[in-house]
Amino acid sequence: MNRVIELKLMDKIRFLTDYIPEAELTVTLQACDVIVLNYQSARFEGSACLTRALAAGRPVVTTNSPALDISAPVTLRTTEQFDLPRVIFRALTNPFLCRNLLDEVTEYAGNMNWENFARKHLATYEQVITHEQACTTDLLKYYGTHPDEIYTEELQRERVRWLASKASGRILEIGPANGYIVQFVGGHEAVDIYRERLDVARALRPSVKFSYGNIVTGLPHADKSFDMVMSPEIFEHVEWEQAVVALKECMRVGKRVLITIPNADKPNYNPDLVHNPEHRWLVTRQLVDRMLKAAGAIDYELDSSHEDDFYLIDINSTATKPNIRVTPRAEALPHFEVTPGPKLTIAIDAEMLIDDALLTTETGRYFLEMLNNLREVRPEWTIQLVSTRTDKLKARLNAAGAANEYQVTSWAELTRSGAQALYIPNPLSEAAADSMRVAKEAGLIVTCTMNDLAPLAFPQYYLTHDPLLRERYITSLNALKEYCDVSMCTTQATLQEMQIRLGTKLKNLRVLHGGATLSKNIASTEYVNLELSEQLDPTTPYFLHAGELGPVKNLRAILLAVDEIRKTTEPRVKLVLACNLNAKATEQLLSAVQRDGLDPNLLVIAPQIEDADLTKLYLDAVALLNPSLLEGLSLSLVNAIELGTPIIAAKQLAQEETCGDAAIYVDPLNVTELVNAARQLLLEPSARMKLINASRGEATRFNWKRSAEKLAVYVTELVVKQKQTTSSKRSKVLA
């Protein structure tokens, strides 16, 4: 009121503050030239005012408030280009536009009447009364982490409205989460690979058909059985090669395909959106174009959302002639090439290459595979191996026939070597903290690989008895937080650990899984190692435990479980340890077994053996036992998946992430659970076969070449973004 008086508009504005009877309100609204609902609420509650305004049959102007947001285009909405006065002016001066709005209102009213609402409510009540419980999931707990309120966010709202504006005919959604979008756009069916999410969606949206389906392996629908297939925020959750397969499947099932996908080309993008831990590739325009071409899309429009957070793609999958349109907004984005990208010089901490003991560890094997594959995927890059012992490193490269593949540089020369980035495969090594600091001070981008935070999670096993080790570990973690631009975590679980335990921001984290180090084609038909051939009779069943034998590996639980099976089920069964134990460690372990009153004959300790014998151990084992208390990426698990070895693992995030459906999961502290799972795989061939079959699907997720490509892409992105930032700062200074 004060503002009205200040502007001297008292004779222009009428305030209706008293109660208005129903009939008078209707006549008043119908007498208006335009009805304006200037809501500012950011919540998604419904609005009876909007329904009343539409029923008056006059043009309605609204804001972008979620409270006024419905899927049908029945109102004129304010935008950044058209503020409230401009939109009201359009409604007053454009009768053709208003006529179209009223036609849309008429159609909308035909579908959204009380009779239809009553039918939907009645159908829901009948389903609750006559059917079994629709959802076994704790709805309150699940919905608390997946609420509809996330769709009130501006960036989410825009993509949802874009989908709704394109929606027509019979609609299928891929990956519906809790089902909000498919219901909002008036869709008919949705498929998802997460059964828990389907469970929730069925309970929340009974009018939509939800079913299990895997877009990569194939949908249970006929060709062109839907007018439209929607895939919002899905393709980035599978590997790029799988995204191509998924898009082909969407185009097979639907006559049109709508895709929304995060946009990494946007300057200063939202890292929570682009580098979500579940995302498997960096979505740039270059890779989107390649995906569309590889899938055979020839008729499509590629746009970006108003704030450039998403690419929006509308594909006509029935087209026979090319018709590719890229909107000016999408074309104007400063997209950059990441594959192969610019020629870079990257320095790599190579101290592990001259330490035979470290090379036999999982960290060492991971580094070797990553280094060899990085050379393969980026042959044009200059890769500098940095060491304090350059002579020894050169000799090692000469012996391996790789002297011409890499440059060798000392740490003292690093700042003058021309490198743009430094990659440290083991940031917890003794000299890593100083190396990161020197590189950062020299202006290099610093990246590293983090496998796990076991010493931080279990300090009683690692840090309490050695003050020097504890001090070095803490120093390394502090340097990691201060100097490292991006940490490549070997599992999503490790990424979450770094967020929680170290407070690392998501923009400084990536997931880089790696691959297997063994394959079936190297397996020996008979054990080459004499000790193994003498101790393992071909008819003797055995369980296998492989990898590094640390305190969190829970070996005592494994020994107790196998001992129990020998006593109650199969006296011949053995446990084979393939952990590269030396003579002293072997002697100490056997003494501990006897001290616990266990039969030492249950144990076969494999000496340091070649990969051919190790592969045979995997292939012939009843199962791999791995009830570890904590893991990062366990190469022994990945090898078991690659070779089809059944797995018993712990209910622990990284192990569940790695194994997927290819393992039986047990409480690592419950020996009885471990015994029961091992006994099942020993006695039931069908249970073993189920895991063997599942491993074929899980194995496709682990690939060294793909992982090296991701490392190259992430480093390229950092270098390019740094150049863009530097250039921007320089421009501001000059201005």
Provide a descriptive summary of the structure in words.
- It is a single chain.
- α17 (390-399) links the parallel β13 and β14 (407-410).
- The two termini are 45 Å apart.
- The longest helix is centred in the last third of the chain and has 31 residues, at 704-734.
- It is built from 31 helices and 24 strands.
- By secondary structure, it is of the alpha/beta class.
How many separate helices?
Answer: 31
Distance between the termini: 45 Å
- Overall outline: globular
Major sheet: arrangement of strands: 6-5-4-7-8-10-9-11
SS elements, strand count: 24
- The helix/strand class is alpha/beta
Strand content: 5-15%
Write down the Rg: 31 Å
Strand count, sense and closure of the main sheet?
8 strands, mixed
Give the proportion of residues in helices: 40-55%
In round numbers, the mean pLDDT is 88
Which segments are poorly predicted (pLDDT under 50) over 5 or more consecutive residues? 728-735
Oligomer: single chain
In short:
45% of the residues lie in helices and 15% in strands. With 735 residues, the protein is α/β, with parallel strands linked by helices. The strands form four sheets. Strands 6-5-4-7-8-10-9-11 form an eight-stranded mixed beta sheet. A seven-stranded parallel beta sheet has the order 14-13-12-15-16-17-18, with helices on both faces.
